[in-house]
Amino acid sequence: MPKTILVTGGAGFIGSHTCVALAAAGYLPLVLDNLGNSDRRVLDRLARISGVAPEFIEGDVRDRAMLDRLFAERPIAGVIHFAGLKAVGDSVADPIGYYDNNVHGSFVLAAAMQAAGVRILIFSSSATVYGDPDSSPIPESAPLRPANPYGRSKLMVEQALGDLQRADASWRIGLLRYFNPVGAHETGLIGEHPQGRPNNLMPFVCQVAVGLRDQLAVHGGDYPTPDGTGVRDYVHVMDLAEGHVAALRHAESQPGLVTVNLGTGLGASVLDVVKAFERASGRKIAYHIGPRRPGDVPAYWGDPTLAQDTLGWRATRSLDAMCADSWRWQQGNPRGYEG
Ligand code: NAD
Ligand code: UDP
Q1: Which of 7, 8, 13, 125 most suits a substitution to test ligand 1, by most atoms within 8 Å of the C-beta?
Q2: Is 287 a catalytic residue?
């Protein structure tokens, strides 16, 4: 009997790709999403990739009564918790809304799991918890000093789940700190489709390549990096998805809490991404160097050693593959799931 895994936020970017990885690993993903930042048509695409669409429940993780019913009715073996809000700028403008969704939502979920006796929880944290690091690569032991409400919401949940595991040693918790997830499933059937003007680099580059935007504004060309542009650790979303399966298997094998970085350990500059995307797409990406973006850190990338040692996971897909897969998705779906 395949084990049922509740995937909160499973209709979103990383959650949908993780449903593919879960199905490939023999699990039954059960998606719970309020569709606040996603489209139910992703389910048809998941069916085309995996042969069957995951079961879908439209609902909010803050709805305790609904969660209690769900845990009572289904043989849920564990939970991967993606549901949350992720725009740094919005979190500065609406901190309470962010704490309500990301922190309160996680508490309601954990309390429902506690009551139902479900003890496996894999949580989407973020490298944002490190803030501006002293040096890179960043190990998990680096100081935690998030610089905005979004990052603080992730750190609060990490700390609360740590307290929970110390209070009840039967919990099996994975805190996964993602670096910069990009790319799409290799079929180009699922991917990232931000609403409105993209904040993030890769979706913006995709939209320039496909002709939806005139040119990329590179946010700063005078950083102390090899080419003056910001450096980040881009990680393919399918590598990330497989990292969740590895974390789930680890949690199944032993109680406890693990905190790991999911990144490649390699830094790429904005211009490295532009060049890789040009190679992958055969299109010229017009850009100009603009001012720095307030709040941006010049450069950081993760140390992936602990993920390799504890989970047996490491990223295998290159920056060229990330760009090629993003491009395939963008070309086939210029308006996202609207077709
Ligand atoms: P996403 O917005 O595509 O997915 C999040 C999903 O959660 C969406 O489908 C949304 O509708 C749903 N959702 C939001 N609040 C909900 C609620 N209260 N109840 C039920 N569903 C809800 O974002 P993503 O990029 O897939 O990110 C997934 C998780 O990973 C988030 O927690 C995010 O903070 C974290 N993360 C993302 C990144 C990144 O750069 N994409 C980096 C680090 C961490
Ligand atoms: N960036 C850019 N132009 C854009 C968007 C992003 O130059 O339109 C840069 C940004 O300054 C950073 C890198 O690309 O150096 C990655 O930014 P993104 O917003 O994708 O992720 P972040 O690292 O901020 O989470």
Answers
A1: 13
A2: no
Measured by CA distance, the residue closest to atom 3 of ligand 2 is 218
3-class secondary structure, 76: strand
- Which pLDDT tens digit goes with each residue over 22-74? 999 999 999 999 999 999 999 999 999 999 999 999 999 999 999 999 999 99
Separation CA 223–CA 199 (nearest Å):
19
Contact call for residues 165 and 171 (beta carbons, < 8 A): yes
What's the CATH code of the domain at 105? 3.40.50.720
Q: Which among 27, 98, 99, 150 is annotated as catalytic?
A: 150
Which structural domain, as residue segments, surrounds residue 170?
Answer: 4-181+235-263+302-313
Into how many domains does the chain fold? 1
Residue with tokens 């039967």: 170
User: What's the whole-model pTM score?
Assistant: 0.98
pLDDT in tens, 217-276: 999 999 999 999 999 999 999 999 999 999 999 999 999 999 999 999 999 999 999 999
How many A from CA of 35 to the centre of ligand 1? 10
Residue 299, beta-bridge partner list: 231
